[in-house]
Amino acid sequence: MSRNVLSLTPLFRSTIGFDKFDEIFNSVLQGEETSNISYPPYNIEKRGEDSYTITMAVAGFKDRDITINSNNNELVITGNIEDKSEAEDKVEYLHKGIATRAFERSFKLADHMIVTDASLADGLLRINLLRELPEEKKPRLIPINNQKAIENKKSK
């Protein structure tokens, strides 16, 4: 049985510093990891030519409840609230719409992406990223040598 795979490659030609988005979307379309795919919600913003920000809505989490790890082109954000107060245990909720369940969200980073800093304020976690190309990877202008100039140098 052949399976049609939707390729979103044309949508990501102007990349935002992340690669393999089409693999992420294909896994969603194929039903993989769909239970936790929308929590916590996040935005990815392009701030400049090589500057990006991931903003995650993490209401109820404190900075000690969140860990951010960057390793081998992968960024992993984990949240887990372990210190629930006794007063909160005695509360009877009539409606509980603010999710504070544990989460792990990972992002594949493009080559040469680094995390510059992270901040947590007003229930929003902001992670700033920067693409830093090494000098040898940056485009450079190659001058065209004039053949007559080269011949004149040889004859002198």
**What Rg is obtained from the alpha carbons, in whole angstroms?**
24 Å
The tally of strands reads: 7
- Return the structural class: alpha+beta
pLDDT < 50 runs, ≥5 residues: 12-16, 31-35
N-to-C terminal Cα separation, in Å? 74 Å
- Measured as a percent range, the helix fraction is 10-25%
Report strand %. Answer: 25-35%
Name the strands of the widest sheet in spatial order: 1-2-7-6
Biggest β-sheet description: 4 strands, antiparallel
Order of helices and strands: HEEEEHEEEH
Mean of residue pLDDT values: 78
Descriptive labels:
14% helix, 4-stranded antiparallel sheet, 7 strands, 3-stranded antiparallel sheet, rod-shaped, alpha+beta, 156 residues
Could you write a compact summary of the structure shown?
The chain is an alpha+beta fold and 156 residues long. The chain has helices spanning 21-29, 86-89, 147-155, and strands at residues 42-46, 51-57, 66-71, 74-79, 103-108, 113-121, 124-131. Strands 1-2-7-6 form a four-stranded antiparallel sheet, with no helix packed on it. Strands 3-4-5 form a three-stranded antiparallel sheet, with no helix packed on it.
What topology emerges from the helices and strands here?
Layout: H1 21-29, E1 42-46, E2 51-57, E3 66-71, E4 74-79, H2 86-89, E5 103-108, E6 113-121, E7 124-131, H3 147-155
Antiparallel strand pairs: 1-2, 2-7, 3-4, 4-5, 6-7
Describe this structure in words.
This protein is α+β, with helices and mostly antiparallel strands. The chain contains 3 helices and 7 strands. The chain has helices at residues 21-29, 86-89, 147-155; strands at 42-46, 51-57, 66-71, 74-79, 103-108, 113-121, 124-131. The chain has a 4-stranded antiparallel sheet, with no helix packed on it. A 3-stranded antiparallel sheet has the order 3-4-5, with no helix packed on it. The longest helix is centred in the N-terminal third of the chain and has 9 residues, at 21-29. It is rod-shaped, with a radius of gyration of 24 Å. 8% of the residues are buried. Residues 12-16 and 31-35 have low confidence and may be disordered.
